[in-house]
Amino acid sequence: MIIAAMGLAVWSQTGRSEENETSVFNSPSGAFRIEANGSDAWVISTKNPSQKVKVPMPGGSEEINPDDEFYFSPNDEWILGGRHVGSCLRAADLYDRTNETKIEIVNSFDSLAWSNAAKFRVIKKDYQAEGECSMTFFAGWSGDSKRLLVGLLGGEDRRDHSAGTHGYVYFNIAAQKFEITEYLRKLNAAKSQVLPCAEPTDPLPAEAELKARADAADKHLNDAYSAKIQKVGKDRGSNLRESQRAWVKARDAGLQIYLAAMPAAERERRKLQFLGDVTLARVESLNAGPGEDEPFDFWERVSGK
């Protein structure tokens, strides 16, 4: 049940609100959480809080900032961390929970994301290696935890979002390498805002199971949206409504791109899988961060090319 195992979350986070304040990032299953404070972050077992393992972040010095956000994979084994590097600079670190007492960092993850994106011609050039604006963002986990979708935005002309300044690449967990698929080629060529969805590599569950999951996701979205409207207040409610309308439009456009890259025989199940995944991701975006803030995910940072 690779997709059902995602529970109600593609990722879960609360974000850091103030310096030296502890922030909590929960895993999808709820079995683990990360408590981050300053240069330290610990993965803690919910069942046994005395079981805690330090995240080997590269930051913690004046030269390197620590990760300030974390995204667990659906199976709780992998964690993507994100950190501020400098003006128009943001990096990502990938960690592997190899066992209950050990966490390892994937070497050179961020620089390899940029160099491979340039090699795949997702972006014009390796903006990070050139010393230009380069920002790496989390874009999603596949339901089977086999693929991590990363969003890249860079270049001095990034504000016009011209072709070659932003795009998506996968990190294949099983193969331990970056890759691009036919779907990602179509996604990167999109000329309007579209929702992305990381493709699982394992076989999909039965159609009935996928439909039940998508229907349940819709209900959770309605509940999360209603709760968020109450939190943001009257003055900012119009902003959230506009954000939700943009999400629906981007979802529908993204679905068409996703299905166009899939075998005809799988399209009905792929449609349900896509709708369930992106809806659950939206639920998490609505629930994450300060209650008064509207969601602002990677797809919203990049407009049409």
Write a structural description.
This protein has 305 residues and is α+β, with helices and mostly antiparallel strands. The protein has one domain (4-301). It contains 5 helices and 12 strands. The strands form 2 sheets. Strands 5, 6, 7, 8, 9, 10, 11 and 12 form an 8-stranded mixed sheet that branches. Helix 3 (207-260) packs across helix 4. The chain is globular, with a radius of gyration of 19 Å. The N and C termini lie far apart (37 Å).
Comma- or semicolon-separated keywords:
5 helices, about 300 residues, about 25% strand, 4-stranded antiparallel beta sheet, 8-stranded mixed beta sheet, globular, alpha+beta
In short:
The protein is of the alpha+beta class. It has one domain (4-301).
Task: Present the secondary structure layout.
Elements: E1 23-26, E2 32-37, E3 40-45, E4 52-54, E5 69-72, E6 78-86, E7 89-99, E8 102-105, H1 109-119, E9 134-141, E10 147-154, E11 166-172, E12 177-179, H2 182-188, H3 207-260, H4 267-287, H5 298-301
Helix pairs in contact: 3-4
H/E order of the elements?
EEEEEEEEHEEEEHHHH
DSSP helical segment count: 5
Structurally, the number of domains stands at: 1
The quaternary organization reads as single chain
- Please report which band the strand proportion falls in: under 5%, 5-15%, 15-25%, 25-35%, 35-45% or over 45%: 15-25%
* Classification by helices and strands: alpha+beta
- The stretches of 5 or more residues where confidence is low (pLDDT under 50) are 1-17
Q: What Rg do the Cα atoms give?
A: 19 Å
Please provide the count of β strands: 12
From the N-terminal CA to the C-terminal CA, the straight-line distance is: 37 Å
Report helical residue fraction: 25-40%
> Mean pLDDT across all residues, rounded?
90
Instruction: Tell me, briefly, the overall form.
Output: globular
How is the biggest beta sheet arranged? 8 strands, mixed
